[in-house]
């Protein structure tokens, strides 16, 4: 039904009016043409479909045939495998073929080797062809050859070190080529220098274009080596210019001439080297500084002075022969400790001159140049350390040997300062000289070893000596010590001010060491060393080797318990300062006891004086009357004066006052108990006692302003003891005072306040007033 509708629509579209029938023939022809075209397309499609069907059938047949053939082949293989499995023929065949296959493999490998060698020779010849005209062009084939050599060496390891001869040959060719390339350019540069009669040129002159061009060509050849090298390398053009000086150096310092003697290295060799560099400094900077800056300023080595500064490059070239000289000198020095010590000092001075005068960094812009000293110490440090330790200990023993070394050095500091012994000051001078020996060393572990092995060892020995002196003093002065026997000489040494002097020597020496170490702890060198030690202790997980072969515990025990902790305030000398401070405190305590013992002996007769109630002279009303000092007090005053005078010279003001305060407090107690509380006093006896105490106080005040304050309780007690029996109207009499004190505590306190007495209690006041004979009842 639908085709009829489409035909009807078509006719309606084409025959819309009567005039359209006039073109009916044309319309029919057009329709017929379209029909024939469609029929033709239909026939072609039908034919193509038939062809496709036939082709598919053919392919299917072929595939079936191939499957059938494969199955037959598989079956044939299975049969043959069964036969082979049952037969020994394959193993025999494999064995027969094994040798030819190996030979074939060797031939193939040899062919590849030959090809590789041909490539090596080609690259070598190509590099040679560009020299000396174009060093940059020669670097191309040389770089490829070097990369090949590096790759072969890298691959050799995983291959069980195979092709050792080939790898060695390629490396040899590479090194030889590089040597030839440098030699070619070297000869060209050398010819240029020879034409200009180098080094007989004016140091203030300018070089010509040919010289500069040759200089640049050598740099171009070497730039890859410079950029790839992990350490500093010498610059080829500078090497060529330096060779004449190296020959001169060898002539003077590495020959059989007198100037070559090892002992003259500090007087002649080092100054010659520095003078040479200084002479050509301006010439090198003015002429070749811009060239080096242009070549390296945009590279990874632009921060290294050995490449940017021609003077530093010149030093690098010259240092090679200096190393040779130093090595030869060291071989002699290690057999002579004295020479080794002086050589190391001269070598450090030379290194410092190179760094400071020419800003030489040795190719390490971050850490700076380690110097020839570091190179020497990497081999000979232990030898040098033992030599310095031996010298230091010998010097220490020499300091301690003379008897005068143990005397007090009164001239070391002024008045009011504690005086050390000569030995103590000389020991600190010795330690300072040791510091000067190693403070310029660059390596931290070397510095720490010097500190611990030498300086702290000497300090420990001296500390043991001071401790021995105190122990000997205790054994001589104590009852237990005397029981084991004491010589007359030992006892005589403590007579007079001998005991005080012995203790002052220990106190002053320990005080000097403590003050010196405290001062050193604030010096930059030791502060930096402490910070480095703390940083290493906190970061180092291996406590068995914190530095220089020493464990964490060893370092901590010798320096400070704060090592490796977060505590603030630690210093390198904490343990040593603590030990010496203990000796100082111990000596100070003994000193106060020794003064008190002197007092007990000196006051023995005075304490036993029985005449306080029977004084011949009675006090008068004359306000200017002063009774004579008791004769038994003459000796105590002499001893007091002697001790005060001696200690005022030997001790610092603070220590002097501290020691005497303790001793006078004991004297105050002795006078209170053995005189005041042990005797009865008439008014004249009380006045005599007050006069005696005034004499004691006056003597003390001459040496210690306000020092008699330690006797204040005795002074106030004697004020009570000297109250008159009868007082003027409004005054305080003995009877009135007695009535008030014995009434009750409240009245006693009012009485004490009225007399401005603050150190006595009501009980003390009662005891004192009872000592008057008038109150005996």
Detailed description of the structure:
With 777 residues, the protein is mainly alpha-helical. It is 72% helix and 0% strand. It has 28 helices and no strands. It has helices at 2-14, 24-85, 89-129, 135-156, 164-195, 209-228, 236-253, 265-296, 305-308, 310-333, 337-358, 371-400, 422-438, 444-477, 479-483, 488-493, 498-521, 524-539, 552-558, 574-602, 604-607, 634-650, 653-676, 683-703, 712-721, 734-743, 745-754, 762-769. Helix 14 packs parallel to helix 20 and helix 26 (734-743) packs across helix 28. The N and C termini lie far apart (167 Å).
List the helices and strands and how they pair.
Layout: H1 2-14, H2 24-85, H3 89-129, H4 135-156, H5 164-195, H6 209-228, H7 236-253, H8 265-296, H9 305-308, H10 310-333, H11 337-358, H12 371-400, H13 422-438, H14 444-477, H15 479-483, H16 488-493, H17 498-521, H18 524-539, H19 552-558, H20 574-602, H21 604-607, H22 634-650, H23 653-676, H24 683-703, H25 712-721, H26 734-743, H27 745-754, H28 762-769
Helix pairs in contact: 3-4, 3-5, 4-5, 4-6, 5-6, 5-7, 6-8, 7-10, 8-10, 8-11, 10-11, 11-12, 12-13, 12-14, 13-14, 13-17, 14-17, 14-20, 17-20, 17-22, 20-22, 20-23, 22-24, 24-25, 25-28, 26-27, 26-28
Number of helices: 28
Q: Main sheet?
A: none
Please mark out the parts with pLDDT under 50 across 5 or more consecutive residues, or reply none.
none
| Rg result | 54 Å
CA distance, first residue to last residue: 167 Å
Silhouette = elongated
Average pLDDT, rounded to a whole number, is 85
Structural class of the helix and strand makeup? mainly alpha
Helix content: over 70%
Number of separate strands: 0
Share in β-strands: under 5%
Helix-strand pattern, N to C? HHHHHHHHHHHHHHHHHHHHHHHHHHHH
């Amino acid at each position: 039904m639908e085709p009829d509708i489409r035909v009807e629509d078509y006719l309606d579209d084409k025959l819309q009016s009567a005039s359209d029938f006039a073109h009916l023939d044309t319309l029919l022809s057009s329709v017929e043409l379209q029909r024939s075209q469609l029929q033709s397309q239909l026939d072609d499609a039908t034919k193509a479909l038939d062809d496709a069907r036939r082709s598919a059938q053919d392919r299917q047949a072929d595939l079936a045939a191939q499957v059938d053939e494969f199955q037959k082949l598989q079956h044939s293989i299975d049969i043959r495998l069964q036969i082979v499995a049952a037969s020994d023929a394959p193993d025999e065949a494999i064995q027969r073929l094994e040798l030819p296959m190996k030979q074939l493999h060797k031939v193939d490998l040899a062919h590849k080797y030959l090809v590789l060698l041909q490539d090596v020779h080609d690259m070598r010849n190509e590099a040679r062809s560009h020299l000396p005209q174009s060093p940059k062009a020669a670097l191309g084939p040389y770089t490829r050859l070097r990369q090949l050599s590096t790759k072969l060496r890298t691959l050799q390891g995983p291959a069980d070190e195979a092709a050792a001869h080939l790898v060695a040959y390629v490396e040899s060719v590479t090194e030889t080529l590089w040597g030839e390339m440098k030699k070619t350019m070297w000869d060209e540069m050398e010819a240029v220098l020879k034409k200009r009669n180098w080094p007989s040129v004016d140091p203030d002159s300018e070089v010509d274009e040919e010289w500069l061009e040759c200089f640049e060509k050598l740099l171009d050849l070497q730039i890859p080596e410079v950029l790839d090298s992990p350490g500093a390398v010498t610059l080829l053009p500078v090497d060529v210019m330096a060779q004449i000086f190296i020959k001169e150096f060898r002539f003077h310092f590495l020959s059989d001439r007198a100037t070559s003697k090892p002992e003259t290295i500090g007087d002649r060799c080092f100054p010659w080297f520095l003078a040479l560099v200084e002479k050509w400094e301006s010439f090198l900077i003015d002429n070749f500084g811009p060239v080096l800056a242009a070549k390296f300023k945009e590279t990874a080595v632009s921060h290294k002075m050995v490449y940017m500064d021609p003077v530093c490059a010149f030093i690098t070239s010259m240092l090679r022969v200096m190393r040779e000289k130093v090595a030869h000198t060291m071989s002699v020095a290690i057999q002579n400790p004295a020479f080794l010590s002086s050589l190391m000092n001269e070598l450090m001075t030379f290194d410092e001159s190179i760094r400071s005068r020419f800003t030489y960094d040795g190719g390490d812009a971050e850490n700076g140049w380690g110097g020839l000293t570091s190179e020497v110490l990497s081999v000979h440090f232990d030898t040098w350390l033992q030599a310095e330790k031996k010298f230091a200990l010998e010097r220490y023993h020499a300091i301690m040997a003379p008897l005068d070394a143990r005397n007090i050095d009164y001239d070391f500091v002024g008045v009011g300062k504690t005086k050390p012994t000569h030995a103590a000051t000389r020991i600190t001078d010795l330690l300072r000289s040791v510091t000067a020996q190693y403070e310029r060393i660059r390596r931290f572990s070397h510095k720490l070893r010097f500190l611990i092995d030498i300086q702290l060892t000497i300090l420990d020995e001296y500390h043991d000596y001071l401790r021995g002196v105190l122990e000997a003093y205790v054994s001589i002065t104590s009852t237990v010590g005397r029981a084991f026997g004491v010589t007359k000489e030992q006892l005589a040494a403590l007579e007079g001010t001998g005991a005080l002097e012995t203790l002052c020597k220990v106190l002053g020496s320990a005080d000097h060491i403590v003050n010196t170490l405290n001062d050193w702890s604030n010096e930059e060198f030791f502060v930096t060393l402490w910070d480095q030690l703390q940083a290493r202790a906190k970061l180092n997980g291996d406590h068995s080797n914190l530095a220089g072969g020493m464990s964490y515990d060893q370092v901590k025990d010798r320096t400070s318990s704060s090592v490796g902790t977060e505590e603030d305030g630690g210093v390198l000398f904490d343990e040593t300062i603590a030990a010496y401070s203990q000796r100082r405190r111990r000596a100070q305590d003994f000193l106060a006891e020794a003064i008190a013992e002197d007092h007990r002996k000196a006051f023995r007769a005075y304490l036993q004086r029985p005449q306080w109630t029977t004084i011949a002279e009675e006090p008068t009303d004359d306000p200017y009357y002063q009774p004579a000092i008791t004769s038994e007090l003459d000796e105590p005053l002499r001893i007091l004066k002697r001790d005060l005078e001696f200690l005022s010279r030997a001790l610092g003001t603070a220590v002097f006052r501290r020691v005497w305060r303790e001793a006078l407090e004991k004297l105050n107690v002795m006078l209170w108990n053995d005189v005041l509380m042990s005797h009865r006093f008439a008014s004249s006896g009380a006045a005599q006692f007050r006069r005696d105490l005034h004499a004691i106080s006056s003597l003390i005040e001459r040496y210690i302003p306000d020092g008699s304050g330690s006797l204040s309780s005795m002074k106030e007690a004697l004020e009570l003891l000297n109250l008159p029996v009868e007082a003027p109207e409004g005054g305080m009499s003995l009877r009135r005072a007695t009535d008030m004190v014995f009434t009750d505590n409240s009245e006693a306190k009012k009485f004490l306040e009225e007399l401005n007495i603050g150190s006595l209690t009501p009980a003390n006041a009662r005891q004192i007033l009872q000592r008057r004979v008038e109150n005996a009842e």
